[in-house]
Q: What sequence folds into this?
């Protein structure tokens, strides 16, 4: 049991090797089996999260933790495993309330996407199923590793590991402008990684200074060892003339915000989605975007809470811009997939807003919104894919009356898009309302304004989604679509789990909240005083 | 059965029916799909009746003194409470969302007199409408229409959602029901989704409601911020004691903001000015849907919500004034439009707007019980009118324009008589249900600090009688004329006529639960305010108390809800107006059909304004829809040109540098040799210059 997490991370890699060895015909079955196996095994880790035992202990108490020395060079080893001087890099993974729900989401969505890739032969570009499925599985390892990593160096490595497969998956198996989209995606993320790398090294050396030479990459120790947190958040320590905490926060934030993606670094996303094949879009929207926001919650806020509180207004502004700007962009779309891509941008704005306010309700809302979006957006992308497979175009204005031709598919589509719209009793609602509630209640002076503006996003969301439904599914059935077959058994089977979860999360959100509340409460223990202090300080400034 | 069990069964039974139809309708049930939903809704109705008896018993057990005192002294241990105090406590169905670190925001229900009134109204009309739909959703040969099972599944889902809305014990669950009924309305308006106009109307309805809900949601957030709870009773108690969470005093500005934000939601759902535009378009849906959702039940949710939050509204004179003024304005505005329309369903839709305006008028002057009374009577006669219109539509092969047919009374006697009776009720003819309720509202308005609201109500009453009978005379009287393609008009079958008759009986007698008989008064035997008001009294005792205080502070003699013995002149006046309106309609449309045309020609621009619904749709399109779309285009253009442009420039820098440097490495020997020579010269010059 102790190594279960390591197995979860590496089984996809083994699967990738098998895919490469086995005949090309078997590739999709092997990928399906591997991802399904990973999903089942990851479900075995539910135990401590269901009974609430993961909540025992402070922030940093991990489940299924596994730690092995990995790269230990230079300096001298001390008896307790730490290292004076040199580099002390460990294989260190574990799960808590932040990473666990996202890991389950990853294994589930990856499995469904593997299934969604089954009509590989019917895609316009039919080349190398072996390569496709091998890269697909490597991608899963990268994502799972990033969620599980507790060593910042390891985190960084996994972060880069998932970059390359994605580049090829879009660039080789994508649509007409695949090269452009793939390179844009790659360069954007890489630019962010560079900043992360700088921060990584700066933080390592700062921690070494704080600990008398015993540097560490441990993300938990960064947040929990008082000497390090004092050093990280010290008002006097500087980095290139900037306050150290602020500089690190900003660099890491930029690295992560590209992934979310946040305005103005978001333009890679619509291009990547439009060119990527359906299953890759599902993973991209469902899982990869969450990594950015996970980075905020795992790295930015616990490590640099002072900077986070001081820059909260900026982060919240970006979140609000995302919500409104993304929704407006949706209104202008004629490409079905680009519309869903922009709606992802809009929805991720709520996640960022929830993070920005640094309260328990905000973090809960952000986490829930991530999960809700992680279910509804792959569903929407798959729904687009189903129709693209039949029509071979995605022009919203050329569709019409599809519900009549495909009643089962039409009902599923309505459910999926209404979940995305944030209808109460479906998953999107809880995340949005929770973020809004938290923002409205947040201690910052600007919070109410931010909440009111973002609440208006709900109206815009309803606008573009209903308009889209009207154009695609309602109205007169056009002749060229009349013969389309309804959703096949495979398509229904892929949609079904997401549909059930969309309803489950909306009606019984309590169980999902239970999976993460413990860890978020633990974080609040050290975040709350800092937020209170920052708010008090800013009100003194304003008063003076 | 226990109260709690019954309360859970009421929404669950229709949901179960709906879910079963949804699951097996297409394969197994097909045109028998109605049975499950009909059974579910009827069973829920029986549960509601049983619940009514339990609540009534509990109320009597508690005694009126407890009921009157409860608001101010809610600190009594809940388990010790009896009567209304016990009913006012919400009970938990299951835990829904975690609020903060420890406590939970639950799915709670609240069963009190107001809930019961709404449940009985909703479920009895629903049962009638489901029955009617069995006949309506078929062609003349009795074959079910396309999507028959879908229709009943949605109808069941609607009844479930409406019951959730009504039973909710906290604001978040109210919001859930509120949005769910909106969804059902969307799905059912768009039932004939192949029709582009129906698809557009569905979208419009949802969107306009969303705009109202934007305010409603903010109101709920502000309630949470102010009181740190969303439970009805806790909030109401704190408002009644003018307390915020943490023993801070509640400012009038804050309570006014909350009330007005909540009212935004009511304006959307109950289609009040300026968010009324969706309701007439919603008539694109099947007629039973118009009757149930867009006349009798869902659109009254706004009235219910304001009545539910009566304590909050009553605490803010400004909010009350706005509610009343918007109600009166909508009542008059919609009635003027109804004068000029020719589509039977649209006339009825504007009439619904107008009647909802009355209800808000009543709420605005503090006559909460009278508004609820009007809601209840309106449900019966308006549902009957709509179903009657549907019966005509069915017989006329989908034609609903009253210029295309006339003289149907001989061919369709049941439809005619039920339509006539309900029309008389709508017109406010004495002794029919709406007479009592409408009169109470106008009376309360006249007695309030804003009597001009009452005068608007009276003018509207005259217009109402006129447009209703304009429609009746045009459609059912004069010589028989049928639209092209219809051989002969025929009466509808028993599935459709039975609900018509039952609802017409309701339209006649429903009002008598709200009057006291035998003690003098109007016609020597009818006195307003009866068992209905007595039953609801504990719900509004706090609000009324507050109203009194506010009124007393303003030095206004407060008479809302209390008819003095000398005040029966109003009843005579309003009956007179009703008869005068009917007489005018009769004279104009059967005796001298030239007059309406002459008036229309003479008052050209005013008539056009009415006929084109004050050009509100066009205005909104110009002011909101187009600019927002333009803004969307601009944002997207910004993405493509500005942001991607900057990106292109950044990407161009390395390319430019490469371009410049490329010249140095062209691969030709002479070039390199020249470079070496030039370099050597420069270095030598530099060395020599510094030597």
A:
């Amino acid at each position: 049991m102790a190594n279960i997490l390591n197995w979860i991370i590496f089984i996809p890699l083994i699967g990738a090797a098998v895919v490469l060895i086995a005949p090309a015909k078997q590739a999709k079955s092997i990928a399906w089996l591997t991802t399904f196996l990973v999903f089942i095994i990851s479900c075995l880790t539910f135990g401590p999260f269901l009974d609430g035992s993961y909540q025992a202990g402070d922030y940093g108490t991990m489940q299924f933790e596994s730690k092995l020395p990995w790269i230990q060079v230079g300096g001298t080893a001390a008896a307790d495993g730490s290292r004076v001087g040199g580099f002390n890099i460990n294989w260190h993974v574990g799960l808590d309330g932040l990473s666990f729900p996202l890991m389950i989401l990853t294994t589930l969505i990856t499995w469904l996407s593997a299934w969604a890739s089954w009509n590989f032969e019917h895609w316009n570009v039919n080349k190398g199923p072996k390569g496709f499925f091998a890269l697909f599985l490597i991608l899963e390892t990268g994502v799972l590793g990033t969620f599980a990593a507790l060593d910042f160096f390891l985190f960084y490595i996994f972060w880069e590991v998932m970059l390359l497969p994605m580049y090829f998956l879009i660039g080789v198996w994508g649509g007409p402008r695949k090269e452009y989209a793939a390179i844009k995606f790659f360069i954007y993320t890489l630019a962010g990684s560079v900043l992360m790398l700088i921060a990584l090294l700066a933080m390592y050396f700062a921690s070494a200074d704080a600990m008398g030479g015993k540097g560490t990459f441990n993300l938990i120790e960064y947040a929990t060892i008082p000497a390090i947190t004092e050093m990280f958040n010290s008002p006097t320590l500087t980095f290139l003339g900037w306050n150290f905490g602020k500089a690190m926060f900003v660099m890491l934030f930029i690295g992560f915000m590209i992934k979310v993606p946040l305005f103005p670094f978001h333009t890679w996303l619509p291009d990547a989605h439009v060119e990527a094949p359906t299953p890759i879009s599902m993973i991209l929207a469902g899982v990869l975007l969450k990594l950015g926001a996970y980075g905020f919650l795992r790295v930015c806020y616990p490590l640099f809470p002072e900077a986070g509180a001081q820059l909260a207004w900026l982060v919240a502004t970006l979140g609000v811009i995302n919500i409104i700007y993304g929704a407006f962009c949706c209104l202008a779309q004629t490409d079905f997939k680009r519309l869903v891509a922009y709606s992802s941008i809009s929805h991720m704005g709520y996640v960022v807003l929830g993070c920005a306010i640094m309260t328990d309700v905000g973090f809960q809302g952000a986490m829930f919104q991530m999960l809700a979006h992680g279910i509804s957006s792959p569903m929407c992308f798959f729904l687009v894919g189903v129709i693209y497979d039949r029509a071979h175009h995605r022009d919203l204005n050329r569709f019409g009356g599809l519900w009549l031709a495909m009643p089962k598919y039409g009902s599923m589509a309505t459910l999926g898009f209404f979940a995305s719209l944030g209808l109460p009793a479906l998953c999107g609602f809880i995340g949005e309302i929770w973020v809004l509630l938290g923002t409205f209640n947040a201690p910052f002076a600007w919070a109410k304004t931010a909440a009111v503006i973002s609440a208006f996003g709900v109206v815009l969301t309803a606008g573009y989604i209903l308009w889209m439904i009207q154009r695609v599914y309602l109205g007169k059935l056009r002749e060229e679509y009349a013969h389309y077959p309804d959703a096949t058994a495979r398509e229904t089977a892929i949609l079904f789990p997401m549909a059930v979860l969309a309803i489950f999360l909306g009606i019984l959100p309590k169980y999902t909240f239970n999976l993460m509340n413990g860890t978020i409460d633990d974080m609040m223990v050290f975040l709350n005083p800092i937020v209170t202090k920052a708010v008090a300080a800013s009100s003194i400034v304003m008063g003076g | 059965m226990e109260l709690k069990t019954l309360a859970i069964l009421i929404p669950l039974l229709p949901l179960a029916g709906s879910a079963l139809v949804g699951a097996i309708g297409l394969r197994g049930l097909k045109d028998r799909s109605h049975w499950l939903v009909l059974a579910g809704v009827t069973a829920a109705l029986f549960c509601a009746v049983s619940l009514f008896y339990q609540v009534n018993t509990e109320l009597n057990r508690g005694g009126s003194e407890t009921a009157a005192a409860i608001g101010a002294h809610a600190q009594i241990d809940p388990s010790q409470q009896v009567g209304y105090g016990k009913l006012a406590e919400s009970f938990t169905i299951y835990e829904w969302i975690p609020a903060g670190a420890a406590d939970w925001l639950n799915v709670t229900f609240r069963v009190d007199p107001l809930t019961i009134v709404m449940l009985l109204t909703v479920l009895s009309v629903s049962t009638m409408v489901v029955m009617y739909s069995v006949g309506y959703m078929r062609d003349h040969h009795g074959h079910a229409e396309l999507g028959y099972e879908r229709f009943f599944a949605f109808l069941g889902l609607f009844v479930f959602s409406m019951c959730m809305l009504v039973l909710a014990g906290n604001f978040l669950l109210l919001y859930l029901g509120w949005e769910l009924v909106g969804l059902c309305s969307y799905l059912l308006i768009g039932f004939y989704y192949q029709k582009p106009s129906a698809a557009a109307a569905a979208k419009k309805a949802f969107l306009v409601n969303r705009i109202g809900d934007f305010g409603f949601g903010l109101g709920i957030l502000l309630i949470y911020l102010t009181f740190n709870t969303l439970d009805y009773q806790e909030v109401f108690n704190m408002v009644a004691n003018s307390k915020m969470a943490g023993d801070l005093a509640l400012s009038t500005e804050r309570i006014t903001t909350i009330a007005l934000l909540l009212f935004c939601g009511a304006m959307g759902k109950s289609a009040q000015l300026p968010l009324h535009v969706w309701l007439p378009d919603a008539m694109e849906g099947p007629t039973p849907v118009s009757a149930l959702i867009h006349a009798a039940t869902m659109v009254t949710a706004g009235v219910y919500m304001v009545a539910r939050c009566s304590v909050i509204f009553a605490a803010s004179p400004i909010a009350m004034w706005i509610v009343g003024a918007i109600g009166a304005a909508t009542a008059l505005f919609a009635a003027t439009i109804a004068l000029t329309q020719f589509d039977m369903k649209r006339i009825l839709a504007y009439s619904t707007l107008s009647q909802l305006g009355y209800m808000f008028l009543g709420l605005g002057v503090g006559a909460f019980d009278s508004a609820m009374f009007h809601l209840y009577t309106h449900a019966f006669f308006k549902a009957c009118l709509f179903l009657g219109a549907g019966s005509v539509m069915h017989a006329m092969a989908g034609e609903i324009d009253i210029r295309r047919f006339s003289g149907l009374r001989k061919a369709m006697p049941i439809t005619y008589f039920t339509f006539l009776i309900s029309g008389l009720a709508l017109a406010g003819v004495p002794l029919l249900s709406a007479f009592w309720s409408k009169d109470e509202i106008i009376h309360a308005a006249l007695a309030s600090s804003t009597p001009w609201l009452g005068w608007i109500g009276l003018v509207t009453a005259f217009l109402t009688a006129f447009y209703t009978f304009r429609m009746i005379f045009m459609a059912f009287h004069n010589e028989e004329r049928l639209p092209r393609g219809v051989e002969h008009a025929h009466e509808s079958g028993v599935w459709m006529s039975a609900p018509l008759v039952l609802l017409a009986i309701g339209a006649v007698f429903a009002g008598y639960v709200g009057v006291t008989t035998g003690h003098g008064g109007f016609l020597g035997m009818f006195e307003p305010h009866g068992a209905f008001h007595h039953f609801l009294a504990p719900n509004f005792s706090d609000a009324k108390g507050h109203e009194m205080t506010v009124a007393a502070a303003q030095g206004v003699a407060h008479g809302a809800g209390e008819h003095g013995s000398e005040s029966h002149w109003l009843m005579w006046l309003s009956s007179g107006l009703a008869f005068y309106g009917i007489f005018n309609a009769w004279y104009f449309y059967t005796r001298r059909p030239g007059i309406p045309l002459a008036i229309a020609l003479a008052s050209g621009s005013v008539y056009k304004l009415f006929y084109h619904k004050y050009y509100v749709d066009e205005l909104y399109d110009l002011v909101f829809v187009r600019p927002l779309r333009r803004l969307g285009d601009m944002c997207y253009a910004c993405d493509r040109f500005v942001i991607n442009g900057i990106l292109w420039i950044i990407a161009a820098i390395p390319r430019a540098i490469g371009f410049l440097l490329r010249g140095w490495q062209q691969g030709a020997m002479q070039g390199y040799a020249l470079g070496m020579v030039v370099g050597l010269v420069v270095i030598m010059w530099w060395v020599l210059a510094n030597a």
Summary: Residues 407 and 671 of chain B are 103 Å apart (CA to CA). Chain B touches chain A through 54 residues (CB under 8 Å). The radius of gyration of chain B is 31 Å. The first helix of chain B runs from residue 3 to 29.
